[in-house]
Amino acid sequence: MTRLFSTGVSTGAAALSLALLAACSPGEPDAPAQTTPPPPVQTPEPTPAPVGTAVAFMSDVHFQDVYGDFKSSQFSGIPTRDGKNATIRTMYAQLTSTRLFNENYFAFYAALDDAYAKGIRYVALPGDYTDDAQPMNVDGIAAVMKQYQAKGMRFFLAPGNHDPVEPYDDQEAGKNDFLTKEGKEQKVYATSNAACIAKDPAVVCTDQLMEQGYEKLMTKMGEFGFMPNKADILWETPFSKHSGGKYTYDEAVTQAALANRKFEICAEGSGGIYKAAGEAKLGKAYTKCVKMIDSTYLVEPVKGLWLLSIDANVFVPNANFDPARPEWFKGYDGAGNAGWNKVITHKMHLMEYIKSVAARAKAEGKQLMAFSHYPTMDFYANQTGAMKAVFKSGAFQTARVPDATVANAVAATGLRLHVGGHMHFNGTNDHQDTSGNYLVNVQSPSLAVYGAAYKIITYKDAETIDVQTMPLGTVPRFAELFPLYVVENDYLKGSSIPADAGKRWDRAILDTRSYGEYTRYYFGELSRLRFMDEYWPCEMKEAAMNLNGKQMLILSQLQTKVTLSQLKDIPGIVPLTASCAAAGTVTGMPVAASTLSADWADATARADKLATAAGLRLDDFAALSAYEFYGDFHRTVYAGELALRDMGQGRVNQYKVLMSAFPSSPAAPVRIGDKLSDQNPVGTAFQHQFKQVFAILKGLGSAKPSDHFTVDLKGKKVSNASNNGLSFN
Q1: How does pLDDT run across 508-524, given as a tens digit for each residue?
Q2: What is the DSSP string of 371-405?
Q3: How many helices (H) and strands (E) does the chain have?
Q4: Which end of the chain is more exposed for a tag (fewer CB within 10 A), N or C?
Q5: How far apart are CA 725 and CA 729, in angstroms?
Q6: pLDDT at site 14
Q7: Please, are residues 321 and 331 in contact by the beta-carbon 8 Å criterion?
Q8: DSSP-assigned beta bridge partners for residue 185
Q9: Within 13 Å of residue 675, how many CA atoms lie on the same side as its CB?
Q10: What is the enclosing helix (H) or strand (E) of 216?
C-alpha cells in the first residue's frame, strides 16, 4: 500500500466553536485528558497524490464517552482505581443491543492507531459516529479526533440516524440503563424530560443527555468536514455557487453558513422547484412543508481526490408536525428506516447534485469516493426475499433494505462507488442498470459489533479500486471495564426481583482474551437473549436452540410417519416437541410412536454416509452446538466473509454438508391458521424450513467478496484479491 504523508490541518474555518469541543474532552487512553484544544498544525500547500491516496472508512463508531462527565451532582459515574469516573451502560444493555456502548470507545482508538501506523491520513466516518448525539458524547469524540488531527490526520463526517436522532434538539431524551457502583441500573434523562420536571428522585437529570439536532452538531463538528478548511483545494455544498466559476475559501465559508444549506421537504415528497410536478403526479397539494438543513458537502483535501459526504438522512414531517413549531422534534419521523428509499423521493435536489458531481469527477479525472450512512442496494447478498419468506414479519430489519428502484436511481446519476454503513454489516454488492451504469456499494462494518473492522479504499488507477478490510481482533484495554461488570453480574445473580432475574447474563464473556473473542461471545448472547425471540418463528426457534449439528444432519434425512403429537410418547430421541403446534385431527391409522427409533437409526446411517463422503465424521457434527449454530447464522448476517474466516475451514465444511443434505423438494407442512399442525411428521417442518435457512446461510456466506477485493469499474466486476477467503460455494 502506498504510504501517505501528513497534509496537516488548518483550523481557521469560520463557524467552528473550539471552546465547545474542548469543554468535555476525554483523554486518549494512554494520555491525560486535554482541557484546551491542541495548537493548529502548520499546513503545507497541498501536493498532488494522483494514485494511491488511501482513505479509511470507519462507520457506526457509536462513540460513547465512557469517562465522560454528566456535569451533575446527582451522579458522576463509577469511581475507578485510576481516579476516573466511568459513565457506562450495563452489560445487559449491551448484550441485548445491536451495538456495544462501552468497549467500542477503545476500539475507536485502536482503529485510529492502526490506520495512522499504516500511513493513512484521511478518515471518513459514514454516520453514527456518536451514540445519539448527546453533548457528552459529541464533545468526547471531537476531542479524540482533535488528538489525531494534531498528528496530521483529517476527518470527514457524514450524518447518521443517531447523529442527529431528530433534525432538531430533543430536550427530553435519556437512557434507563447506566451502571451504578452497586451493579444496578440508573436512569439519566435530559432536564425537560417529564420525570425531571416531576423531580422524580430515581432519575438523574442533566442536559449532557439531550440529543442535539443539526445546528448544534454541525457547529461543534464543523472542522471535521462539515465546514471548509483552508487546506482544501475545493469545498462545496449542493447549494454552492462559485463566482466566475472559480473556487475561493472565503466564498466557501460564506456558503457554508447553515442558513445557506437548506432545502424544502414536505410530507409527500421534495418541495421547492420539485413541488408542482409532485403535486400533479399525486393529484393533490403537498402538505407539512418545511425548510431543513442538508449537511452534504464535497471536498478535495488533496489534489485528485474527491470525497462526497452525502446527507442521506430523511426526516419526513409526520402527523405531529406543527407549522407554528417547525423545530419541535416530535414533528418528524425518524430517519432509520427511510434511507435512500426516501432520498430519491424527498431529496431530489441531492440526486441532481450527485449526478453533477459524478459528471465533473469523470471530466476532471478525480478519484471520487462517495459515502453516506445508508446502503444503496440490498445488503443481504440478495437474500432479502428469502429471509422475508422464512422468518417473522419484520425480522432482520428488512424494512431498511432499499427498493430496487434505489439502486437504479443512484446508478443513473453516474456514481460508481458508494460506501455505506447503518446496518453494522460487512458486505459488498453491485448493480448495473439497463443503460449500463455500474454502481458498487461497499458496506463498512461497525466498530461496535462482532466483525468489528474498518475499510481502506485506494484507487490503484482510474478504473480500479482496491478495498481492504481491517478487522479489530486486538484492541488494547478492551477489558478495562470488566471489573465493573462483575459487580453487575453479582447483583443480578443475588437479586430476588423477577425483572433482575430476567436480565442475568453469562459471566463467561468476561473471560474473553481479545476484542475479537469478546465481540464473538457478545453476538452469541445477543442471539440468545434477543434475536431468537424477535426473528425466528416458534417451531424454528425451538429447533435452532435445541439441535446440534449431528441431530440436524440426521433430521435432514429422517423419513417417518411418527407425528409431532407423538413425541411425548417417545422422549429422548429428538429434542423437539409439539409445543409450537396447534392440535390437528388424526387421520387414518397412526403408526406406533416406537417406530421413530428405527426411522432415526436409518436416518443416522444416511447422515453418516453424507459426512463420510465429505471426508468428515458424523460424531464430530455434535460439536456444532445449537448455541454455535444460531450464533454463526447471525454472525454471518453481520460479518459475511469475516464470519467464515472466524469459523475456520472445518466448520465451513460441516455447514456445506448440511446445506446439500436436504431433500430437493421437501413436503410443505400442514398448518392450522398461522401454526403448524401437530399431525405433521416429525421431520417435515424441519426439512421444509431449514432447507431454506441453510440456503440463506449459503447465500450470505457466498456473496461478493467483502474482505480484500478490487473493483474493476471498466469491466464492471468485483474480484477477490485474497487467497485466504472462505466460501460456502
Answers
A1: 999 999 999 999 999 99
A2: E-SS-SS-SSTT-HHHHHHHS-TTGGGGGGSPPHH
A3: 23, 23
A4: C
A5: 11
A6: 35
A7: yes
A8: 179
A9: 12
A10: helix 214-220
Radius of gyration from C-alpha coordinates of the chain: 27
> How many CA atoms, within 13 angstroms, populate the side-chain half-sphere of residue 346?
27
Instruction: Please name which of 218, 214, 222 lies closest in space to residue 329, comparing C-alpha atoms.
Output: 214
Query: Cα 322 to chain center, whole Å?
Result: 32
Distance CA 433, CA 438 (A): 7
Residue 334 amino acid letter: G
Residue 238 CB coordination number (10 Å): 20
At residue 684, the 3 state secondary structure works out as helix
- Kindly tell me if the per-residue pLDDT of 44 is higher than 90: no
Could you tell me if 391 and 536 are in contact, meaning their C-beta atoms sit under 8 angstroms apart?
Answer: yes
Cα 416 to Cα 464: distance, rounded to the nearest angstrom? 11
Does the pTM of the predicted model rise above 0.85? yes
User: Using CA atoms, how far apart are residues 471 and 724, in angstroms rounded to an integer?
Assistant: 14
Phi, psi angles (nearest 5°) of residue 469: -105, 130
3-state secondary structure 152-215: CCEEEEECECCECCCCCCECCCEEEEEECCCCCEEEEECCCCHHHHCCCCCEEECHHHCECCHH
Rounded CA-CA distance 25/138 in Å is: 9
Distance CA 641, CA 498 (A): 40
pLDDT at position 339: 97
Span 687-718, pLDDT tens digits: 999 999 999 999 999 999 999 999 999 999 99
**pLDDT tens-place string over residues 409-419:** 999 999 999 99
Amino acid at 475: V
**Strand (E) or helix (H) holding 219:** helix 214-220
The closest alpha carbon to 373, from 414, 336, 329, 348, belongs to 336
Altogether, the residues listed in the chain come to a count of 729
Cβ neighbours, 10 Å, residue 247: 17
pLDDT tier at 20 (50, 70, 90 boundaries)?
very low
C-alpha 706/C-alpha 613 separation (Å) is 30
Cell, residue 241? 455557487
Q: How far apart are the C-alpha atoms of 386 and 696, rounded to whole Å?
A: 7
Residue 420's CB: how many other CB atoms inside 10 A? 31
The pLDDT value given to residue 329: 96
| Amino acid, res. 203 | V
Q: What is the pLDDT of residue 245?
A: 81
Strand partners, 55: 457
The phi, psi pair for 446, rounded to 5°, reads -85, 155
Q: Are 342 and 316 in contact (CB under 8 A)?
A: yes
Give just the sign of the alpha carbon dihedral 570, 576, 580, 584: negative
Question: Average pLDDT in the 617-641 region?
Answer: 97
Please report which confidence band the pLDDT of residue 218 belongs to, taking 50, 70 and 90 as the band edges: very high
Residue appearing with cell numbers 452538531: 217
CB 89 within 8 A of CB 173: no
For residue range 583-600, what is the model confidence (pLDDT) as tens digits? 999 888 889 999 999 999
**CA-CA distances (angstroms) from residue 541 to 358, 538, 665?**
47, 5, 22
Beta-carbon contacts of 82 under 8 Å, excluding residues fewer than 6 positions away, are none
Secondary structure element (H or E) that encloses residue 351, with its range? helix 348-364
Phi, psi of 342 (to 5 degrees): -90, -25
Half-sphere exposure of 577 (CA within 13 A, CB side): 8
**Tens of pLDDT along 658-698?**
999 999 999 999 999 999 999 999 999 999 999 999 999 99
Amino acid at site 446: S
Supply φ then ψ for residue 441, to 5 degrees: -110, 120
Q: How far is CA 161 from the centre of its chain?
A: 11
